[in-house]
């Protein structure tokens, strides 16, 4: 299972540097996670102030 960033994302960027495999990138309105790269480590969810990254 991979994480997905939901619409609660405020595009603060805290998750970007936390991803050990570089699966997170800046999207149009929010950050997005590439499910093919995501290792389901949860680092993004641990730092998100609005709990936007959720397990799919």
Structure description:
- It is a single chain.
- The chain has 56 residues and is of the alpha+beta class.
- It has a single domain, classed as Alpha-Beta Plaits.
- The protein is 18% helix and 21% strand.
- The chain has 2 helices and 4 strands; from the N terminus they run βαββαβ.
- The protein has helices at residues 14-18, 43-47; strands spanning 3-5, 24-26, 31-33, 53-55.
- The protein has a two-stranded antiparallel sheet. Strands 2-3 form a two-stranded antiparallel sheet.
- The protein is globular and about 25 Å long.
- The relative contact order is 0.40.
CATH topology: Alpha-Beta Plaits
**Overall body shape:** globular
Instruction: Give unreliable regions as ranges.
Output: none
Class by SSE composition: alpha+beta
Tally the helices.
Answer: 2
Report the portion of residues in β strands: 15-25%
Question: Domains counted in the coordinates: how many?
Answer: 1
How are the strands of the biggest sheet laid out side by side? Answer: 1-4
């Amino acid at each position: 299972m991979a994480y997905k960033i939901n619409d609660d994302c405020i595009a603060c960027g805290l998750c970007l540097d936390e991803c050990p495999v570089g699966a997170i990138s800046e999207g149009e309105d929010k950050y997005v996670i590439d499910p093919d790269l995501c290792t389901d480590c949860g680092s993004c969810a641990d730092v998100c102030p609005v709990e936007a990254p959720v397990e799919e």
